[in-house]
Amino acid sequence: MPELSIIIPAYNEEKRIRNTLDEYVDFFSARYGNNYELLVMTDGCTDNTVPIVKQYCSCHPQVFNYHYEGRRGKGGAIIEGFRNARGEVIACADADGSINAEWLYSLLTNLNGDDGVIASRYMDGAEIAVKQPVARRIASRAFNVLVRSLFGLSYRDTQCGGKILRTHAAKSIAGSIITTNFAFDIDMLYQLNRRGFKIREVPVKWDDKKGSSVKLFRTSITMFLAVFRLRIVNSPFVLLIQLGQRISDSLPSSVGDARTHQNSNPEFKAQSIIKPTIKHHAVSYKERKEDLADFKSARKKKTLPANNI
To answer: Looking at residues 181-209, what average pLDDT do you find?
Structure first.
């Protein structure tokens, strides 16, 4: 069993993945020898990322590629990495190398007796080599306030890519995480906290790498919606939704199917309204015609007074 598993999710990273792998392999091979593994989780790539990684694996036996043809998202790739990791400790890092190998290693040295360590760009002691644009920083701070309010998490930075977890903690939550998009980190930390794992936040050296495909406005909307959905799913309201679904499922299928068919069929609605009306008027006219004929016949026979007409 290797001492360390490093997981790097990658989506269309053909321009940056080789440099990141070179740096990480050189650094960790010097410290761990062959007692580590590096898992590159390529996720629905449409560029040359997969061929580059596969060629790299053929020359470096400690590097492995797990490829998924569809698009699972960063979270889905990391969860798959959790399941395949064999090391005693798991380290997660972004493919762009925004946290270099030396600083990822510094997170490992801070693990001590905790179950996990996460990198923070907003704690005292953090070093930001190249800062993000102002708009992105404002959005990040607003998002963090929302997360702390909704989930009770005390972390100042849930979204930084550098995270260290003991393998037993990572594997214990792999099946419970339901979010694989930008809210994955929040879901992961929330699940860890619910299970009583001790996760500590430490400052990191971080560099805003160019080449990101993330669009601020669209991503912000997606993240806010994902966070609210995650909060609802992990709240008592979901129990009410599930109870309502169970009650609905317990109704007789014939009654439910008939009602569903009738309510969803416009032609049925029209016929149910129009046909009885036509029938009612037709019967009423016939009856009135017969009554008038009887009345005239009775008048001729002088069986009714004339003023009744």
So the answer is: 91
